[in-house]
Amino acid sequence: xxxxxxxxxxxxxxxxxxxxxxxxxxxxxxxxxxxxxxxxxxxxxxxxxxxxxxxxxxxxxxxxxxxxxxxxxxxxxxxxxxxxxxxxxxxxxxxxxxxxxxxxxxxxxxxxxxxxxxxxxxxxxxxxxxxxxxxxxxxxxxxxxxxxxxxxxxxxxxxxxxxxxxxxxxxxxxxxxxxxxxxxxxxxxxxxxxxxxxxxxxxxxxxxxxxxxxxxxxxxxxxxxxxxxxxxxxxxxxxxxxxxxxxxxxxxxxxxxxxxxxxxxxxxxxxxxxxxxxxxxxxxxxxxxxxxxxxxxxxxxxxxxxxxxxxxxxxxxxxxxxxxxxxxxxxxxxxxxxxxxxxxxxxx
Length: 348
What we know:
By secondary structure, this protein is α/β, with parallel strands linked by helices. The protein contains eleven helices and twelve strands. The protein has two domains: 9-52 and 88-272, Alpha-Beta Barrel (TIM Barrel); 284-346, Alpha-Beta Complex (Type Iii Antifreeze Protein Isoform Hplc 12), CATH 3.90.1210. It has an eight-stranded parallel β-sheet. Strands 1-2 form a two-stranded antiparallel sheet. A two-stranded antiparallel ribbon has the order 11-12. The termini are far apart.
């Protein structure tokens, strides 16, 4: 069993929903704190930040491979350094954001992007860590996080089976087995047809870990499907409004959508239940709505049952309809009224 804060993670528990703030605070602490409040109102379990600075994640170079020129890239026309300068969450904000989250009943943690970020987050006593998809091959970082002994959530975007195995073995060698893998497609936004959710049960069996989804698609449909396949954690970016802009706003949920995600993933989880045949306890009253055999005209004792005086109709309080041919030609013991349920006790 994995436990983060007061929440258990596993198929026995409702999905653990993480609201990812990322850079949607638009470099405003006031907006960041408002996002915390919106996440709490939506009913999520956890709030997640990203902990880095432009200098801990890239170089102050603005040409060549450090410049995003791909026309299909959401962040085209920016250098990596300037993008991360716009998107990062100032480290001096973390405590205020985490404190506000805790006041509102949210679990708060972060994705560190280098070892100095881990050291900093340890001073804030975070209850868990997230490894982003682009860092799932950063073995020194993963090892440093594993040494904290805290639960580790790893996005699996782009990672091969061998790369994931190396990350998992690195964690387990440190005596830490609190691992959640998130199926992830590292495109922004992602598309349903590129999500490959069939990997979720396969990943659970292959790595013997809890499995969830880091979902960059629009809407809630993919997340709901993931829960039906066994996902126990769902992570989604969120914002106040996509119209307000921001580095990640184009693929982020708005507050009403985040609330829908919480509600609908729990419904999906509740619906899984267990293997069951026959009426459930809740269905037992509905059995009366089945067809059964009824006397369809007034009859006198000794009369013979025929297609003219016995029918299979609703409600279901008479003999099952499978006995229809068997009772035809039999005589009845007593006078009966139309609408009497047929029973063996009425037959000679």
